[in-house]
Amino acid sequence: RVAPLVATSLAACGGARLGVAPAVAARLEAALFENVAARELLALRLAEVLAAFAARGLEALLVKGAALEAVVEERPWLTVARDLDLVLRPGPAAPPGESARDLRRALYPEGIECDWLAHHDVTMNGVLAIDFERIWARARLVRWRGLELRLPAAEDRLLALAVAVSRKRYARLKGLYDLAEAIAAGDAAGEWAIDGGELAARAAEGAAEGVLYTALRAVEAMIDTPPPAGTLAALPLGRGRRRALDALLSTFLRRGSFVRRRGGGLALLLAYGCLRPGQAWRALGVGLRRRRRTETEAAA
User: Fold this and answer.
1) Whole-prediction pTM value?
2) d(CA 3, CA 189)
């Protein structure tokens, strides 16, 4: 999902001089323009959806890549997004018992994934203890295309992106690139600056200190983006666990690849190794149940 990014980079450094075949360069450029159009269509649909939610008294929180694109990325078309992720909750004007379940189900086929109160991807289906009440409380209200929506605080947004990198087993450059972009944007002064101590505290509170540590170290190794100042030192990780994660990541870099499909068995070890033992056991159970469900659906 980085063809538009490759196209832009090749154009900037002279693709012809690098020996890129004209047909290949043309295909990459076409991917860039197609992605611009696809993103705009998705944004228009999102605006319609947010207006419908507001009319029903519901409040929306953008999470993961959608939140990053709204406030951080100056050129969000450089990577391909398949969906948008929202979290909903009833506002003061919402009717009693409102859950918008039918509306949420109707949006899933359109690539707009809505969860109620919390998002299952960020909590890894309950494996992590991410406190969404705190995320809602710290979220900032912004205007986007004439509509009001909420975006997580800089630290909460970055933590969600780190979880996404781990969930995809470090095999997708898009996730690593998104995380690097969020870190780079947080290095600048302003309302979206990242507080390293606060980020570490949010990770520890959600029992995600290993997830954040490994994701930040992976982005530093792969995209040469240092972690936010003070974050790694503030994470409550013992020396032994840090050494074990560093050794596993180093082995993964030598023998595996971030760009291979799932990165093989080393990527799986890395994804489970960054969790606490109890969390790893629960994550394994979630994965097995999902696999059985997929196989059952395929058989049907």
Assistant:
1) 0.85
2) 31
Three-state SS for 234-298 is HCCCCHHHHHHHHHHHHHHHHHCCCCCCCCHHHHHHHHHHCCCHHHHHHHHHHHHHHHHHHHHHH
CA angle, 210 then 154 then 79, to 5°: 85
CA separation, residue 152 to residues 23, 137, 142, 147, 189 (Å) = 42, 9, 11, 16, 17
Residues 18-50: pLDDT tens digits?
A: 788 889 888 988 988 888 888 788 778 888 888
